[in-house]
Amino acid sequence: MASADLVLPSYNRSKMWTREYRPTLADILECEQLNKCFTIFMERVLASDLWYCFQKLNHFCTLDENDSGPRLYAAQALHKEHISPSSEYAIHTDYAIQLSFEAIASMTVKSYCEKSISRAMEAAKVAVMSEILRDSLPRFFDSPEYLDFVLHRPDTEEEARKRRKLAEWFGEVVSGPLQRTEILVW
User: What is the pTM of this model?
Assistant: First the structure.
């Protein structure tokens, strides 16, 4: 599986995020406000290295596969900053991943091997993502940052339009979460 093929499930519940209906990791990456909220949480619990490493791994997937220079330099920078056990912002990874990145660190543009870099980046991304899903995400949903986000989240454009239409219809300002309720009469 190529690194660009890794797809995170998304349930598209952005209009209903509450303490019960929680966003996925893909939703956190897509929503700018939620991404900022999660970043603040990760910095508070001293796990920002893991989050920044995951964002760099996602950025690597956007680089052109035909241009070996930037991909090699990005992989080497990731090794230097996060994967190497001696780096300042080291994250815990398997020994096999560390060995793969040690080989990447010694590569030059002439000895560049796309398959080995893609495999190493994919393995690192899966390891980091599982660590976030297993450890950080459940704690985030119980955090004051997420509660504050749910309670004070600004309306999307669609919600703002619906709120404006309801205010025009009822003649008063509509506050609180919008919810459609239908009454069925038999």
Answer: 0.63
